[in-house]
UniProtKB/TrEMBL annotation:
GO molecular function: oxidoreductase activity
The entry's keywords: NADP, Oxidoreductase
Gene3D superfamilies found in the cross-reference section: NAD(P)-binding Rossmann-like Domain
InterPro entries: Fungal_SecMetab_SDRs (IPR051468), NAD(P)-bd_dom_sf (IPR036291), SDR_fam (IPR002347)
Source species of the chain: Trichonephila inaurata madagascariensis
GO CC annotation, single: cytoplasm
Name under which the protein is recorded: C-factor
CDD domains assigned: carb_red_sniffer_like_SDR_c (cd05325)
Length: 308
């Protein structure tokens, strides 16, 4: 009978390299142990961005449409048709994403209801994976020039509007959880931005603990209390959202080169604003990594926690 001959160079390979340590390394490699954690990417079907006509909101739409796996539908909200230029430019170039423009002033309840109805009509059982509560105002006034109307306008826009949107869109966020789990069993365990999430664009200046940090800014009083109210209201909703499998975070975009950013910090403060593209790309990157441990949290765009 002919002896089975194993090629010598292969024998040498087994002898020298296929040691028990090698096998263990292979096993660890295959199971992912000891490897740097895989970076999550966003896989969204549907997103809604409020205040999408300019600044951070417009950039969110631009970058969402440009994701490696872009959403199928982005609902971008506006108040005035004359401000749709930037969104129209994105729409023309968008190949995989359908851009739906929704008229929405977040201080008008009937417009919130109508916008939510449109989301139901267009997205249906797919639901809404991500609501970005971005629309906001920031105007400065010294104490002696404050009026109740001025204070209420900030409160209604920056705190009440986002809460009412969560209320109206909750069934669609729930649909998104069910739809994602049904179509991708086990792929998005726990709370995950690709499944269902609310991202609230807050501001570090809404932090009560950091209220005494410089710059202490008397004219920002209306803005700062409205962002503190946003944080508190979302904190109050975090238990409910978690019970429905919906992730929620408050994020500070940084000091960003937008008309609002320029109004917030006058040039003489010596702070360097960042580009809108940089702010939004890091927020999206951080959001993709957010898990249960960040739920209900108040974080910087790079994920660092901010004290409430
Ligand atoms: N820029 C910064 O440095 C900075 C820092 C911290 C936090 N933030 C937060 O980031 C978010 C976006 O700010 P931004 O810098 O991009 O400001 P922006 O350039 O002034 O844009 C604000 C957006 O919000 C919309 N908006 C304002 N009031 C609204 C209302 N009642 N209903 C619906 N939409 C409304 C505006 O729509 P119109 O075009 O119709 O006016 C616009 O699209 C805000 O929540 C802001 O507080 C910004």
């Amino acid at each position: 009978m002919m002896a089975l001959r194993f090629p010598k160079h292969l024998l040498r390979f087994f002898h020298e390299f296929v040691t028990p340590e090698f096998c263990l390394r292979q096993k660890r490699f295959q199971s992912g142990v000891g490897q740097p954690p895989k970076e999550q990417t966003l896989e969204l079907d549907t997103v809604m961005v409020t205040g999408a006509t300019r600044g951070i909101g417009l950039e969110f739409v631009r970058q969402l449409v440009g994701l490696p796996k872009p959403p199928r539908i982005v609902f971008a909200t506006y108040r005035n048709e004359n401000t749709l230029m930037g969104l129209n430019e994105i729409k023309i170039r968008s190949e995989s994403t359908k851009l739906e423009f929704l008229r929405l002033d977040v201080t008008i309840q009937s417009e919130i209801t109508q916008a939510a109805e449109k989301v139901v009509e267009v997205a249906g059982f797919v639901g809404l994976n991500l609501l970005i509560n971005n629309a906001g105002i920031a105007r400065n006034r010294m104490l002696m020039d404050l009026s109740p109307y001025f204070m209420e306008e900030h409160f209604k826009t920056n705190a009440v509007g986002p809460v009412m949107l969560v209320k109206e869109l909750l069934p669609m966020l729930q649909n998104a959880v069910m739809n994602k789990d049904w179509n991708n069993p086990g792929k998005f365990p726990g709370l995950n931005a690709s499944k269902a999430a609310v991202l609230n664009i807050s501001a570090w200046s809404g932090s009560l603990q950091r209220a005494m940090d410089p710059p202490i800014f008397e004219p920002e009083i209306a803005y700062r209390i409205s962002k503190a109210a946003l944080n508190m209201s979302m904190r109050c909703l975090s238990g409910l959202l978690k019970s429905h499998g919906i992730l929620m975070v408050q994020m500070n975009p940084g000091y960003v080169k937008t008309s609002l950013g320029r109004r917030l910090v006058p040039p003489h403060e010596g702070l360097n604003p960042i580009e809108v593209s940089e702010s939004v790309s890091s927020m999206l990157k951080t959001l993709a990594q957010c898990k249960e441990s960040q739920h209900g949290g108040f974080i910087e765009r790079n994920g660092a926690p901010i004290p409430y």
